[in-house]
Input
Amino acid sequence: MEIERKFLIREKPDKLTLFPCLVIEQAYLCTNPVVRIRRQNEDYYLTYKGKGLMAREEYNLPLNKEAYGHLLSKADGNIISKKRYLIPIDTPAFAAHYKPSGKLPALTVELDIFEPPFAPLILAEVEFPDVETADAFLPPAWLGEDVTNDVEYHNSSMSRKIFS
Output
């Protein structure tokens, strides 16, 4: 089960080089249901995602480089490329407004900086262990507008976007 909230980021945060970075390329074989392939650095995955916005089924299977390349040639729509920075939410530079209650777990912001044609889009995702924790989460101000329920910001929707 994937339980996550998404936030629109207006400005690229400073000091991103302090955090781990993943280089991601992904494409969609189907968007209903979502069947995605992803290269994440040198790892490859096939992912199935069920219906839903904040909470939905998610299954990941490993692929090898050859299978990824074969499936990539069959993908529909846009290939999405982005850099993902993994930022612990309690990092002092970013946590000015985050005051977790005793029950909230340590959380990580997955900050995605998109390459063209989606640049300058920057989205942040925060994954949660359960829906109750996701609902109780009070995001720090730097996370910006909550777009969890806006399908326009789901990568599967972005893969279908037409550019003139």
In short: The chain has three helices and nine strands.
